Amino acid sequence: MEILAELFSLSVIFATLRFATPLILGALGGLISERSGVINIGLEGMMLFGAFAAVYGSGITSNPWMGLILGILAGMLLASIHALVSVKFKADQIISATGINIFATGITVFLLQVLFNTAGTSPRVPRLPAWQIMDFFPFRPITYFALILVPLVWIFLYKTPWGLRIRSIGEHPQAADTLGINVNRWRFICVVISGALAGMAGTHLSIGAGSAFVRDMSAGRGFIALAAMIFGKYNPFGALGAALLFGYSEALALRVDLPFIPDELFRAFPYVVTIIVLAGFIGKATPPKAIGKPYNKSGD
Amino acid sequence: MSEPQKDSNQKFKKITSVFKEWISGNSGVKSTLEELGFSLLSIITAMIVGSLFILIAGESPITAYQALFEGSFGSFDYFLNTLWRSTPLILTGLAVAFSFRAGLFNIGAEGQLIIGGFAAAMVGYVFTDLPTIIHLPVSVLAGMVAGGLWAGIPGLLKAKRGVHEVIVTIMLNHIAISVAIDYGINNFRDGGRQATPYVQETAELFNFNQLGEHSILQHFPPVDIFAAPAINLHLGFIFALIAAVILWYIMWKTTLGYEIRAVGFNSSAAEYGGVNVAKNIILAMVISGAVAGLAGASEALGTHRSFISGMDAGHGFTGIAVALLGRNHPIGVILGGLLFGALAQGGLHMQFAGVPQEIVTIIQALVIFFIASLQMFKIFLVRRKAKGEAK
Amino acid sequence: MKVQYFLHGEFSFSINESLEEIVEKITTLLEMRNITKVFPGVKANDNVNLKIRKGEIHALVGENGAGKSTLMNILYGLYDPDEGDIFYKGEKVRLADPIKAIKLGIGMVHQHFMLVEPLTVAENIVLGNEPLNNNIFINKKLAVKEVQEISDKYGLRVDPNKKIENTSVGMQQRVEIIKILYRGAELLIFDEPTAVLTPQEVVELFDIFNALRDQGKTIIFITHKLGEVREITDRLTVLRRGQTVGTVDTESVTEEDVARMMVGRDVLLRVEKNESKPNDEVLKLENLTTKDHRGVPVVNDVSLSVRSGEIVGIAGVEGNGQSEVIEMITGLQKVDGGKIYFKNKDITNESPKKIKEFKIGHIPEDRRKRGLVLDFDLAENMILGYHHKEPFSKNMRMNYDKIYSYADDMIDKYDVRTPGYHVTADSLSGGNQQKVIIAREFSHEPELLIASQPTRGVDIGAIEFIHQQIVNQRNAGKAVLVVSADLNEVMSLSDRIAVIYDGEIVAIVNSNEVDEFELGALMTGSTPDKEDAK
Amino acid sequence: GPADEDENGEEEATEPEDETLQVGIVLSTGGLGDQSFNDAAYRGLEWAEEDFDIEFTHIEPEDVAEDAQSLRQFAERGYDLIFGVGFQMADSLETVAQEYPDIKFGHVDEDFGEDIPDNVESLNFAEHEGSFLAGALAAKVSESGTIGYVGGEDFGLIHRFEGGFVQGAQYIDEDIEIISDYAASFEDSGRGREIALSFIDRGADVIYHAAGGSGMGVIEAAEESGIYAIGVDSNQNWVAPGHVITSMLKQVDNAVYETVERVIDGTYEGGLNREFGLEDDGVSLSSLTEIDVEEEEAVELESIDEEDLEVIKEMKKEITAPHKERIEELEQKIIDEEIEVEDWMFLDERPDY
Ligand SMILES: Nc1ncnc2c1ncn2[C@@H]1O[C@H](COP(=O)(O)OP(=O)(O)OP(=O)(O)O)[C@@H](O)[C@H]1O
Ligand SMILES: Nc1ncnc2c1ncn2[C@@H]1O[C@H](COP(=O)(O)OP(=O)(O)OP(=O)(O)O)[C@@H](O)[C@H]1O
Ligand SMILES: [Mg+2]
Ligand SMILES: [Mg+2]
After folding, report:
1. Are D215 and D243 in contact (CB under 8 A)?
2. Which one of B86, B300, C2, D99 counts the least CB within 10 Å of its CB?
3. B383-390 — which CB contacts under 8 Å span 24+ positions?
């Protein structure tokens, strides 16, 4: 009975949202990029770099909001490299994104040494303030942003001309091109937006929830965000649902001791559940048709 | 055999056909050289940009690169160790490349390497009375089978359920860590190392510096040069080369390879051609996973003589880059693996020159960016040339 | 001297121009002069000249790969020409991108539809020019209304709220047309619009053409069907190997003349074949049924037989179950009910591999999707489905020496125009791709040949060749089953014709006992008894 | 091998000079900035560099496969004293030490047992004894009767911290509720924080961590929830002023410093497993009453300001000072072996608690 109460307790729900925050943002970012036809497995690296830049920004200005801005910009910077290489130079999107991830692990630790003279944990810096809403919701700002962004992204994708264009570019870039829509420019923009969101997710890790940068602190969350995006069938609300599910199982795993399953293995529970759900009930998440293919106008 | 002339001719043909196949345009040796030239150019560009970072770190790029080169190719020992470092990268590169050819993206080489390494190390430890001739192959096979089965899961789900293999392999990477490191090591270790117990000697992969101790070989003078204890190169490297040859053979010389490539390019057409698409997807993933598992086994039985936490060291992800650098061809993968192996090996020496080791990681990433981007430059050149010819 | 001409824009004349020259200038809407476009290894357009008059329907014809699409893509701003000038309404223009072309009033319906499947008809039409609410949101209502208006004005029936993936090919084409009219196009380019249409739909399309012409629009129409050229166009321009052969008034030439211009020699336009001598029953379909994922039958109770030495055609509007029938016979789709017999042996639900082993050859309807692995070279494509057999392989080992020499033979024998077997199938034109498939399927001497849309999008030279090959098979005593959306083709090839409608065979007739229009009526389900039933 | 040592040595720009003692140190993966033994060992060498005529170089291997190579590189370059840090490196160090019998080695965090080579001095710390005191203090300070332990990766050495902590707490209060979990990483501060928050949800009001970078999250969680954390390895009291009641110090710096000193003095004895415990201040709790040097240093480095220092002072006075005597008493008992703290490092099955 106690376990049952625990399953839906407020603390679990809050923890779920905290876990889910970077996943939601990452998934939304991935969604925008992939809807335009560009695979973005570089979210992980963009998150990590965003996390670092946020700490640096907050540290030197003593203003966490500057940290947020810098974190977002850093995500955008790495995303522009991804876009430059994969959209402009038409390289394989997976290779380019892999490069981003490798680059991010290297550059963050490198800069830690150059700027903070340490290779592990940065000094603590001012963190974003907690925003107590109605004396009840105890979250850091980025959690609210993430939640607000879900419907916004949905409206953007499904109600505005830009969304329509992005969706058509991901499905049938030639069709968009013949109507005068600049496919590669839009793709560039979408990838950069996804970098901004990933950077924000990273910022949440370092100065939203936390207050310092720790090397490799993204710890695979970019990939999980990607999974949430696919699991959510490339839909913002689906991604939200998936991120919440992942967050929920993590939150629960920390609070409830399940009989029969060794603790270490229970940590894998969300991943196992995801696979089972994907295999059994949810079926196919159909990616945009033109995803992964660089767009060549007029054979150039 | 009776016609040596013809025989060597055919060999030559075969060799050139390998190169031809390597180049998608099939336009022969000339463009192979071009290809190599571009790879070289992008590596050089990456190092030039990398030198900016070295300058930021307050060191001299020239000294740094000298150390890098010195450390990877400066002596016979170092060279052998470069080969040693490239072993897991070649293997994961091959694994990823093989799946790519089947139209699958095995982002799970990392997890397969972990599971394979764990299985190999456990088999290598648990059996105490087996002769080497049995114990070693069984341990290696255990790693391959474990990796293969691990990769078979996404293969099966893709083939039977249409589940995207990328998401499943990402999930399985995390599960592999839970199973092999969090749970596996915890339950089997003895002592404080975060590792499984050392494998029996009968399961260790032969190290090249033991060549001199060999009862027959020790009478050959050249064997001495391997005698240095600093040499880490082990049999795993030979496995990597053999794996490359076998995979090349499977991919381009057998009906299985033909079918896998057909499925990879166009599964509808493959189905029309009587190819069992599901079977080939699963097989391709299993083979890919087995090779990644071999990477794990080679690291566990050769390099660490146990399954040790941190052993994977991101080799699975570097393997993706290696595969793509090598254009998913075994020869290219070997070259790509050697390059990244050299960077890793030489990176240590660069640290002695005062340069943070992250420079190596940064250069790896830059190489990827430039190889990818210079493709564009190449297309531009080719187009210019074509225009010239057409006129 | 400058003259403001009421039709279009300003013209400048010099005093010593002849009247003819001046009239020519005034009536010319578009002129493409000395256009050259080079692709790696190919000169797709080589000094091409084209003049289009205001208000005409102008055909652009030529073999596969002659450069028609390339020329039109240049006109639409998709490709940048390497050399040459374009004059529109007398002014030299540079068409850097489609926006520029659209602004000038040039619109194009592409050979492969440029429609985004998961979007609705209206969304596809307004894409890039969306009517807005508050400057931010798409005004869906207005979009639908505007689409409806155009649809009414030109008689282009579409359902604005339907998703493209749920519409018929004919409607998709109308969507394409509305798309360019929505953008105010004056000059409409159609690249092979009829290749995918039924005769009825072609008739409808031509009505639309006429309506457009009546509204003052100008049309450039690319087709491989000379009957259509004859029927609808005013003038025609012939391209051959990237060069202009000439422009003539349609009335002044015969189809044979045009064909000669296109290929540079005489062409046989009718299939030559003698009386069939059918023998034993080779293929028998008994009450064949299959259902789609919703459980609705797509093929319902189909029975048919094909004997050796005869060609049976299946005529039907696309999407009436003919593809499924073929896929069931060839093992590519599950049979939910009924039986398939091949030479009295039950082959229902056998694997495609087994079916191939029974010596059943199959030319699939979609060569790019089913028939070829576009990234394989020709040699590897030539053995697809036979790769596990000797001499191509033994004990799982491929024998590439044999494969290459076989491919060389086939390229020779079937006149595949290619630099060699080592190029990828992707780099061949549609007609030559088709020849590769035909070479592959014919060379294994099938007992039963199933040919689906064997000449779709293929030029006349190649059609002649392919038809001859099919008739040869039948003459050699093989059984042939042909499916084609091209009525002419079905009629001229087949000995007997089965008409399929809504998943059922509604009639089986001898080909020399029906005419095109009777067939067309059957295909659209308007048989007398059908109508009674309703 | 040793044969071509000269060749290689000559070409190197960093060729060691004769008089100055050349010291090399190979840090364990994770490297500098771990706020733990890597940092501490490095600090010990910095002190030594100030006091003696030595030069030192550090190497951070990119992955575990590089450990042996790094040690060997130092040896080949003719360094006089070479340190390895971390139990994962022990076997590599043993091998290399045997290859170079003329070079002196030091190692942090692994008991080599009886077979220790003659040229190796191993430095070990009784983390369980220090953690015992941390546990005791936690039990004393806790008002809720629930305390927590967060480990980094889940393995032997880290179990030793857990074991000491649990025994210490239970020594004070047999019925105390102790929750523990592992972050499965030394670098995931996000997870560290969430684990701590889940403990706090379950009523914990003092949390001890041995989780490296993940521990940063534990301290953050303690700070934002207004409860207490206990730092580890280095003095972390200043990281969240007023919320870190103490740190279990592991004096790797001192130990390393002393090894260098012994080499300079000529009193270096190889073949020795040194154990540092409470007795010799090898492990200890940071001061429960006074401001420590590190806390003052943090002010100098502007990591915290004077105000923060006041907060720390206040906290010590209010929270920890009252327990000083009891803790010191326990410390003495352990030193006198009246209390036997069990080492959980090699336990197959950790006891339930
Ligand atoms: N993007 C391209 N890149 C390279 N070559 C091309 C490209 N597009 C066309 N070609 C080549 O240019 C030539 C002309 O092609 P084009 O598409 O204009 O022919 P077409 O007359 O439209 O043929 P079809 O009747 O088959 O549609 C062909 O040889 C073709 O292979
Ligand atoms: N990038 C390219 N490189 C080489 N050839 C190309 C390229 N793109 C298109 N082509 C060729 O240009 C020609 C014209 O292309 P198009 O799309 O009009 O096909 P097609 O020949 O008309 O065939 P179909 O109508 O059956 O699809 C084809 O031969 C096609 O293979
Ligand atoms: Mg065309
Ligand atoms: Mg065509």
Report:
1. no
2. C2
3. B383/A300, B383/C40, B386/C38, B386/C39, B386/C40, B386/C41, B387/C38, B387/C82, B389/C41, B390/C38, B390/C41, B390/C42, B390/C43
Flag whether B288 is in a domain.
Answer: yes
Domains and CATH numbers, chain C: 19-263 (3.40.50.300), 280-359+446-526 (3.40.50.300), 371-444 (no CATH)
Query: Nearest-CA neighbor of B355 among B49, B45, B53, B47?
Result: B53
Contact status of B256 with chain C (Cβ, < 8 Å): yes
Query: B167-188: per-residue pLDDT in tens?
Result: 789 889 989 998 998 889 888 8
pLDDT in tens, C122-177: 999 999 999 999 889 999 999 999 999 999 988 888 999 999 988 887 889 899 99
Instruction: Find chains touching chain C: ≥3 CB pairs under 8 Å.
Output: A, B
**C488 has a pLDDT exceeding 80:** no
Q: How far is CA B38 from the centre of its chain?
A: 21
The CATH-assigned architecture of domain A9-127+136-281 is: Orthogonal Bundle (1.10)
Q: Residue C302: beta bridge partners?
A: C288
Does the distance separating the beta carbons of C371 and B272 come in below 8 Å?
Answer: yes
Residues in chain A, total: 300
The gap from C-alpha C437 to its chain's centroid, in whole angstroms, comes to 17
Distance C426 CA to ligand 1 centre (A): 11
> In this structure, are residues C305 and C284 in contact, taking their beta carbons and an 8 Å threshold?
yes
Indicate whether B340 belongs to any domain. Answer: yes
CATH of the domain at B222: 1.10.3470
Residue of D nearest to B67 (CA): D12
Owner of token pair 């013209």: C11
Question: CB distance A264–D154 less than 8 Å?
Answer: yes
Query: Where do the domains of chain A lie?
Result: 9-127+136-281
Q: Is-contact B176 B315, C-beta < 8 A? A: no
Residue B126 structural domain: 60-354
Q: What span, in angstroms and rounded, lies between the C-alpha atoms of B219 and C336?
A: 74
**Model confidence at D330, in pLDDT bands (50, 70, 90)?**
very high
Closest CA to A29 of A145, A196, A168: A196
Give the three-state DSSP class for C53.
strand
With tokens 């998150």, the residue in question is A47
Place C3 in a pLDDT band, splitting at 50, 70 and 90: very low
* Helix residue ranges per DSSP H, C116-249: 121-126, 140-154, 169-182, 199-214, 226-232
Which tens digit of pLDDT belongs to each residue from C17-26?
Answer: 777 777 777 7
Measured between beta carbons, the chain D residues lying within 8 angstroms of B193 are 87-88, 90-91, 155-156
- Identity of the residue in C73, C116, C124 whose CB atom sits nearest the CB atom of A298: C73
Q: Is the CB of C371 under 6 A from ligand 2?
A: no
Residue of C nearest to B17 (CA): C400
* Two tokens, residue C167: 């519409």
> In chain D, which residue's Cα lies nearest the Cα of B304?
D65
How many whole angstroms from B130 Cα to the centroid of ligand 1?
66
Rounded CA gap, C32 and C220, in Å?
13
Q: What is the pLDDT of residue C294?
A: 63
Count of alpha carbons within 13 Å of B128, Cβ hemisphere only? Answer: 1
Tokens standing for residue A119: 């290779």
Which chain A positions have a beta carbon within 8 Å of D224's beta carbon? Answer: 130
Residue B316 lies in a domain: yes
- Report the pLDDT averaged over residues D276-303: 91
Q: What is the tally of structural domains in chain B?
A: 1
Q: For the residues D152-160, what does the mean pLDDT come to?
A: 86
Q: pLDDT per residue over A202-252, tens digit each?
A: 999 999 999 999 999 998 899 889 888 988 889 999 999 999 988 988 888
Q: Which residue, by CA, sits nearest to atom 20 of ligand 2?
A: C430
Rounded (10°) angle between helices C255-263 and C460-475: 100
